[in-house]
Design goal:
This protein is α/β, with parallel strands linked by helices. It contains 14 helices and 10 strands. The chain folds into 3 domains: about 130 residues, 3-Layer(aba) Sandwich (Rossmann fold); about 140 residues, Rossmann fold; about 60 residues, Winged helix-like DNA-binding domain superfamily/Winged helix DNA-binding domain (Arc Repressor Mutant, subunit A). Helix content is about 50%, strand content about 15%. α7 runs parallel beside α8 and α11 crosses α14. The longest helix is centred in the last third of the chain and has 21 residues. It is elongated.
Length: about 375
């Protein structure tokens, strides 16, 4: 059986950059096609599938207002949906980069003036290990009801659709996190600064927040201490609102990570240098389930929680009545209310809910 080699497409009008990118992509095990214009790129996309496309924003050496690269990104999305595109350019604004990521589906954005071979190679490998986009239904990221159609995932998990807030100043990381959370069934709000994130927290209700600790790239004049403080302020806000929060950050100092866990009770702290998509999906799902369990248990009255706690210890109705100095009929009424609120029908199922609460208390 012949295995078809994965291909990459370089869309770049500068010969030197064509050579540099082709060399790195070849070292990553990809067969490389090169195009210098929109028409050539479109022809390549139509002729055979590609896994990676590296696209320069301007495909005219004498016209810095040429944005044919955006048209190439659109062609990639239409003609080769399993191909992930990297926008590489020397003079794009942050706003334009965000447009490429959010409106044209680019995987990430890199500047030529700060290009590093190792960073570029890591991004390519991250694309290669990610599952093809067409492995899931094409409506999975846009149709609210689609998560309930995913094999092995029960509909109640995603109905109604939960909202997640992403606060990340790097456009590439923001795109990655939004994609993963959308695939997990969340309606995602994304923003790049403390002000926007804090505003969303005041206006909307979220069941999950994912944020960077350092928010410096959106304001080049801010010093790192101020930007780190912005991250801590947002963590304080999500903790106050009782929103489970996952930190995805490039800060790796053990003291800082320990501080974030101890002061803000975050669900998880993921270092960007060791980011793994599968692990992130697992953490998101565990955090979601913990949040749902907490929400259900919060509906119980104080007396019902006492009854549930004793039930979880294995006490009989008579023993619970004696412990709380109430009648057994009162215990039965409390149990009926507990079963209805937790949507369970047996003592063991209610006990499992109580056990779940004990495993997630650190989140809040």
């Amino acid at each position: 059986m012949t295995v078809q080699a994965l291909r990459a497409l370089v869309v770049e009008d500068d010969h030197s950059w064509q050579q540099i990118l082709s060399e790195i992509l070849s070292d990553c095990g990809l067969e490389v096609d090169v195009a210098s214009s929109l028409d050539e790129a479109t022809a390549n996309l139509k002729s055979q599938p590609h896994r990676v496309a590296v696209v320069d924003l301007s495909l005219s050496p004498n016209d810095h207002n040429n944005y044919d690269g955006l048209r190439v990104l659109d062609a990639v999305r239409r003609l080769d949906p399993n191909c992930r595109a990297i926008l590489l350019t020397g003079f794009a604004t942050v706003e334009l980069a965000v447009t490429a990521l959010t409106d044209y589906g680019a995987f990430t954005f890199l500047r030529k003036e700060s290009f590093h071979r190792s960073q570029f190679r890591d991004i390519v490998y991250r694309i290669l290990v990610s599952p093809p986009l067409q492995s899931a239904p094409t409506t999975a990221s846009t149709t609210p009801a689609s998560p309930s159609l995913t094999k092995g995932q029960p509909a109640p998990v995603s109905q109604p659709m939960q909202k997640a807030l992403v606060v990340e100043d790097d456009a590439g990381w923001r795109s990655i996190l939004e994609e993963l959370l959308t695939d997990a069934g969340f309606q995602v709000r994304t923003c790049a600064s403390f002000g926007d994130g804090f505003g969303y927290l005041r206006k909307e209700k979220f069941s999950l927040a994912v944020m960077d600790l350092s928010l410096s790239q959106t304001d080049w004049n801010k010093n790192s201490n101020d930007s780190d403080l912005d991250g801590h302020r947002l963590l304080a806000a999500t903790k106050s609102a009782n929103i489970p929060t996952i930190v995805v950050s490039g800060i790796t100092e053990p003291e800082e990570i320990q501080r974030v866990y101890s002061e803000y009770s975050v669900s998880a702290y993921i270092e960007k240098q060791a980011f793994d998509r599968a692990a992130f999906r697992r953490i998101v799902e565990e955090t979601r389930q913990a949040y749902q369990a907490t929400s259900e248990l919060s509906a119980l009255t104080e007396r019902e929680r006492e009854v549930l706690e004793l039930l979880a210890r294995g006490l009989t109705n008579k023993e619970i009545a004696e412990k709380l100095v109430i009648t057994t009929n009162t215990v039965k009424r409390h149990l009926k209310a507990i079963f209805e609120k937790l949507d369970v029908h047996t003592r063991s199922a209610a006990t499992a809910k109580a056990a779940g609460e004990n495993t997630i208390k650190p989140l809040g």
